Amino acid sequence: MRRLSIFIISMLACLLVATPSLRAQKKGTANQSTEERYGYFLESRKKTVRIPFDFYSNLIIVSVILNGSDSLRFILDTGVSSTIITDPSRVSLENMRFTRRVTLNGAGADESVTARVGIGNTLQMNLMRANFQNVVVLDEDVLKLSEFVGAPVHGIFGYEIFNNFTVTIDFVNKELVLTSPENYTYKKRKGELYPISILDTKPFTDAVTMISNGVEYPIRVLIDTGSGHALLLDSHSDQKMLPAKMIDAQLGRGLSGVITGSIGRIDQVRLGDVSLTNVVTSFPDEEAYGAKLYNRSERNGNIGCELLRRFKVTLNYRDGYMVLKPIKRKLQESFEHDMSGMELRAIGAEYKSFVVNNILADSPAEEAGLHIGDELIFINDRPADSMSISDLYKLLQKGHGKKLNLLIKRNGGGIVFAQIKLRRMI
């Protein structure tokens, strides 16, 4: 399935979630006001809070109130250790207290980016609240997440949510369920339980086995809700794992730019007791990804939301386990990749204008004569602005041999007709 994969391998281990002086304080008692309490907690003595989320391009996006005023939308990402505001234009910076500048390195081929650390902030999601928190604010919106997700995105967070609560991700009802860990009780009806390890603030599991070229490989993977792909295997993995057929592709974006690599299919992936076949798998290039990872010897890759969305997922960091409950109808869906060979970017005030951002060599898009910068006006007589970028990718990822008629606005103002014949390239 063609989805944006955001790799936020930001290497933020040196950044504290709270200032040293505040980190040493006790978390407070139930008698303290919510403004005085330190850290993450549920208001009104709630044991459980339900929080709706949007699901765009296989990414979980939640609404967050920053400092009681700025209404933002964050990607919930288990792979990121700090709260990062990626779009500084949407934040009242004059109301924040900054202490220092930092340089962030991450996946991608370009240079590192700079940011400021703001202290003493509050975050709210429904009845979840966090006081006295550090927030990393990028100096520039280098990720342009909104354009590739096709909906407003202003930041990323993850670790502190999962570390302070038992989190259930209900992909069917698009709902997060946050429960105080002491109030969560595992029961068999909730799904199968598998151990996880928290290393460098990130959750890993050994419950995954892959079968490639007739050989079975147990693998350790990061559980990564901030990635839209199904499975990613690090470039240092055993070369015998590699599929016979792969294509070059842009796999996603990190803090340091575009991540290049290849895409192929793994014959079978077992996640616990569930077997998945012909899984579309990403293989990032060494220079753009692998060389910038810590503790590479302790991992083989990661699993993202294209795979996780086939389950109801519960992560319990405190007790070191995850719970997976298969969603039967989702398990029946095949794994597909884009059949056009073009990457789109959403622009405009409501992200309803779609331009071609990249074209693969020898792909149906190249064969149809499409150019980078072309804007889609109509697809099969349907106005492009009546669709979302997720709708477009769904259209482009199914129907091998299907022809799509496109009306294109080319740079310079000319109108061009093109017909693209979809082809399964892997």
- Total helices: the number is 7
- Number of extended strands: 30
Mean pLDDT: 87
* Rounded radius of gyration (Å): 22 Å
User: What name does the CATH topology of the largest domain carry?
Assistant: Cathepsin D, subunit A, domain 1
Spatial gap, N to C terminus: 11 Å
Number of domains: 3
**Assigned CATH architecture of the largest domain:** Beta Barrel
Taking the sheet with the most strands, its summary is:
6 strands, mixed, barrel
Strand content: 35-45%
Structural class: mainly beta
Q: What would your notes on this structure say?
A:
The protein is mainly beta and 426 residues long. It has three domains: 6-182, Acid Proteases (Cathepsin D, subunit A, domain 1, Beta Barrel), CATH 2.40.70; 188-311 and 322-331, Acid Proteases (Cathepsin D, subunit A, domain 1, Beta Barrel); 343-421, PDZ domain (Pdz3 Domain, Roll). The chain has helices at residues 20-23, 145-149, 159-164, 305-308, 328-331, 364-367, 389-396, and strands at 6-7, 39-42, 48-52, 54-56, 59-66, 70-76, 84-85, 97-104, 113-125, 128-138, 155-157, 166-170, 175-179, 192-195, 197-199, 202-212, 215-223, 231-233, 246-254, 257-271, 274-284, 301-303, 311-316, 321-326, 342-347, 353-359, 375-379, 382-383, 403-409, 415-421. It is globular, with a radius of gyration of 22 Å. The chain starts with 5 loop residues before the first strand and ends in a 5-residue tail after the last strand.
